Amino acid sequence: MQIKTKQHKQLRKNSVFRVLTVIAGALLAAVGLELFLIPHGLVVGGITGLSALFAHTTEMRLGLFLFLFNLPFIFMSRKQVNLRFALYTVPGLTCLTIASLALHRFPAVISDPLPAAMAGGICLGLGIGISVRFGGVNKHASDQGYSFLSGGPPKSTEVVIMILNCAILLIAGTLFGWEQAMYSIIAYLLAFEGVRFSLRGLSDSRAAWITSNRCMDIQEALENSLSREVGLAEGSGQNGELSTLFCLINKMEEHQLRTIVLDCDPNSQIVFKSATSNRRLINLH
């Protein structure tokens, strides 16, 4: 019982760490937008770029459009991943909105648009990547051009995203000048690379093997909570007999899977296998 309590405390600490990291990533993204890119009329692609265009043309605050345009994708992430992941996006999106509104009144940190584009793109990309890695801002909308949750969208989706980003950059060039559009492309590319760097090593999917003598309870809990199919790999699966279950999950669902398995059987073992066929054993006792 004492061991289980310690494990629950560790899981709570991990949850707090994730939320704080998501908030830190959102703050970094807001700094990149409001202190480097927006003051120079630099626009990146995706929802962030669309929000910036609306902010410039309507003279309303960027934070408002960031919140409104990203909000639908939180509800979409409920179907794409799970409710707990969607709830992690709320502090990230809220912090991004508030920080953007608070920083809007400050002048640009750099007066030259080229270094501003470079610094802003890096800050934005790293901030978004950090938030995504720890369960923050949902990337189904793909601010940087592709989905990080499924390993890349279908080709048709890639074409739509590419057309959307090109249209945003063309409109930005028309509004702010083609020299500014060139700087916007530089910021976009650096932001894209910043996201990729932050998500380096993050597999799109994980295979989990769960060994326990309460496999029926674990199977039911996983299917209800994660809406994933859970198969029997070894044994009969009856409670009281040591058996092994098999389940495919997203990398971001590992924490939730551990919590569910721990609640059902604190003496279980889980083996995760990434796309690179590396395995790591996690003892839950």
Question: Which residues sit in consecutive blocks of at least 5 with pLDDT less than 50?
Answer: 136-156, 275-285
Approximately how much beta-strand content do the residues carry? 5-15%
| Number of helices, counting only DSSP H or I runs of 4 residues or more | 9
Helix content: 55-70%
Global geometry: elongated
Multimeric status of the protein = single chain
Secondary-structure element series: HHHHHHHEHEEHEE
Number of strands: 5
Main sheet summary:
5 strands, antiparallel
How many domains, in number, for the residues?
2
Measured between the Cα atoms of the first and last residue, the distance is: 11 Å
**Radius of gyration in whole Å, from Cα?**
21 Å
How confident is the prediction overall: mean pLDDT? 76
Q: What structural class should be given to the helix and strand makeup?
A: alpha+beta
- How is the largest sheet built, in terms of strand order? 2-3-1-4-5
Structural features, described:
With 285 residues, this protein is an alpha+beta fold. It folds into 2 domains: 1-199, no CATH class; 205-274, 2-Layer Sandwich (Alpha-Beta Plaits), CATH 3.30.70.120. It is built from 9 helices and 5 strands. It has helices spanning 2-37, 46-58, 62-80, 83-103, 113-133, 155-176, 178-198, 215-226, 254-264, and strands at 206-212, 230-234, 243-249, 269-273, 279-283. The chain has a 5-stranded antiparallel β-sheet with strand order 2-3-1-4-5, with helices on one face. Helix 1 (2-37) packs antiparallel against helix 5 (113-133) and helix 6 packs antiparallel against helix 7 (178-198). It is elongated and about 70 Å long. The chain starts with a helix and ends with a strand. Its main location: membrane. This is DUF2179 domain-containing protein. Keywords: Cell membrane, Membrane, Transmembrane, Transmembrane helix.
